[in-house]
Amino acid sequence: MSNEVNVGLIGFGTIGAGVVEIFNKNQNLLDEKTGKKLNLKKVADLDIITDRGVKIDENILTTDVNDILEDEEIDVVIELMGGYEPAKTFILKALNNGKHVVSANKALIAKHWEELIETAEKNNVRILFEASVGGGIPLLTPFNEALSANKFESIYGIMNGTANYILTKMTEEGLEFDEVLKEAQEKGYAEADPTFDIEGHDTAQKLIVLTKIGFGKYVPQENFTVEGITKLTPLDIEFAKNELEYSIKLLGIAKKVDEDLEIRVHPTFIPKNHLLSSVNDVFNGVYLVGDFVGPVLLYGQGAGRMATASAVLGDVIDIALNPEKELNYGPKTPQVNKVKSIEDLVTKYYVRLTTVDKPGVLHKVGEIFAKYDVSIESVTQKGNSDRLPVPIIFVTHSANESAVKKAIKEIDQLDEIKGETITIRILKE
Amino acid sequence: MSNEVNVGLIGFGTIGAGVVEIFNKNQNLLDEKTGKKLNLKKVADLDIITDRGVKIDENILTTDVNDILEDEEIDVVIELMGGYEPAKTFILKALNNGKHVVSANKALIAKHWEELIETAEKNNVRILFEASVGGGIPLLTPFNEALSANKFESIYGIMNGTANYILTKMTEEGLEFDEVLKEAQEKGYAEADPTFDIEGHDTAQKLIVLTKIGFGKYVPQENFTVEGITKLTPLDIEFAKNELEYSIKLLGIAKKVDEDLEIRVHPTFIPKNHLLSSVNDVFNGVYLVGDFVGPVLLYGQGAGRMATASAVLGDVIDIALNPEKELNYGPKTPQVNKVKSIEDLVTKYYVRLTTVDKPGVLHKVGEIFAKYDVSIESVTQKGNSDRLPVPIIFVTHSANESAVKKAIKEIDQLDEIKGETITIRILKE
What we know:
Chains A, B: Keywords: Amino-acid biosynthesis, Metal-binding, Methionine biosynthesis, NAD, NADP, Oxidoreductase, Threonine biosynthesis. Chains A, B: Pathway: Amino-acid biosynthesis; L-threonine biosynthesis; L-threonine from L-aspartate: step 3/5; Amino-acid biosynthesis; L-methionine biosynthesis via de novo pathway; L-homoserine from L-aspartate: step 3/3. Two copies of one chain form a homodimer. Chain A has 13 helices and 17 strands. Chain A has helices at 14-34, 66-69, 87-96, 106-122, 140-144, 161-173, 177-187, 195-198, 201-215, 234-244, 305-321, 361-371, 401-411, and strands at residues 4-10, 37-44, 61-62, 76-79, 100-103, 127-128, 152-158, 225-226, 246-257, 260-271, 283-290, 294-301, 346-356, 376-381, 389-396, 399-400, 422-426. The longest helix of chain A has 21 residues, at 14-34. Chain A starts with a strand and ends with a strand. The interface between A and B is large, with 64 and 64 residues. Strand 12 of chain A pairs antiparallel with strand 12 of chain B, so a sheet runs across the interface.
């Protein structure tokens, strides 16, 4: 790499426009930080007509991606088109043509980690993807550098802004999921098809990347439990907030237990005094614990044009400064053995039964929990009626997931139980 | 640097022992992350007798620092002795002898920044000091890498664990400063002579380093206001907590205002819903705002043997991976012009007057504030007596520091004012 670093951008969408904007606004800073001239040489997109609201030299726009992939002068390719194909083909071609790659494509990286990294290593180029997890938050770099001497014990991440916005609004305003989702869609905080965000898949992909970097273990998504937030009700959220001092968050959790790995994505009640409980709205936060550093929280905007573009350019600067830098994508030897089954999870549970308030139901339920060795920390009954069904909320002590499930299955067969029983896991560090 | 990286450690104190412990416990991980053999080859200290509670090969201990500085096989020198001299002489000698240096010595770096960096650059070696600010928190590295494409707007740091522990205890338990300090000393959270921590000097030194890295501007400590926490009372803290929903924190603030730099250290009231308000006990948190990334919080243990050693080894790994890496210590051109005088500060103020509750005093005080263009957001009077002095608390709208000072000087001359008037700045982002 000479004193000039030529950058090609594939994908002129929202984040792509953010990248162009950083070049427009902070060109001097970029040059000064790298000691080189950083050129945005070409931008490829199928649509080069629509106005993206940023100033751009029309001569650098192209509809032919090979204008970038085959341009020998281009040193760094930024891939921001997303999805598996043709993004993967383009990235592999760029790497094989000796170009460094910067990508925000968590889906692709989570799925094809090994092939991408190996191709980069084989070609002596770098592939960086800080923007793929936690948007603008410095996250992968710290794992690989400042925190690199640690063996990690656990990673807890609020990594989806859409889900977190919805849960924050449900909590603050006591609204139903559907109402808030609609509002979020109107505000542009949720996609027209929000499945990916609200069902936890986006969080799962980011967790896969963090788990590989933190524990050296690659776990494909089909190998762990992923639960979304669509079934949450204001009743549970408000009760947990007011009576139990819990917040509700969609958490990605990767945790070393004995020598195995717990990995899971699900809505989780978090005690109010835990810092993750203060990560609200569209913000993301990743809380990790290292054997030497102890707990660390990294917090910021997990998505959005400007924040994500900031992380993309951070990677470009790193490459411009250190094209020969050796790679460090977490420990080469996995720090954990097998992936534990969710059935073996031990945590605290929030359980809401809906029951007709007959004398004796508490006793029966208590007996069933005891039979499965699930001990109860607190019981609260809301409302008071002999006829209407009322909610009764149990908080368990640490208990085994499969035991809790069996107990609830048996409880649900009691005549007094009306309506669905709700179970929500509680964070237990 | 061959496939073996030899490390020499100067200073076998608390943190030095932590470094030895990481080598003992995570040697395999260190080797794997760097792809090299990382050897702790020598440890120098005047006292090599006292048991530090960690296993160490006695043959690597030496009382002669030149056994490290003049050993041609040593690639990286870790300096953990602290203080200005002889630490500075040793570091310069190490750099001039072609050795990379890792240091946690914020005092030295804050004072001799230019000489240290220039000497490293001249010798084509690296000097890293992630551990000098925020202990184990990834802080300087993110500024230089993941966040590097940003122009920074502001940096707010809770960077002294002792002060934060004391303020947290005063808040939670309503205790006097002296009581809590004594308890903190007994627990080992405060030094026998705590001046450096509680008067804000430690925070100031860390702020100097962050300001240089964030804004490219070196500001020596004598050029800005540094106020400690010794004058804070439970009365103000409790009132702010219960009536105004503020927390009290010792903040280091560096902020771009117009094109100039605001830089200051002082106790600050922070609204409860601000994330910094949840940074409690001995923890540190730095909240920064970049023009693209927006707000970011980096949180963790700001001191202590294990966390600080984690950051030191993070730097050593970075050097082992990338000995040729180009340096990036923030923008070379300062991003701000002059340092603003504290007299020109515009923020909100908490003002507690102590007055005999004569009718008319509120009116007189209001007139004086108005005369100096200080407008009032709220007034609260606690207690109710015609004879005893009672506190009256004013919260101002944004006002000018010098105007507030002048107003208070005049107010203090009123006959009705008894005892000292307390002024505390309120965070205004």
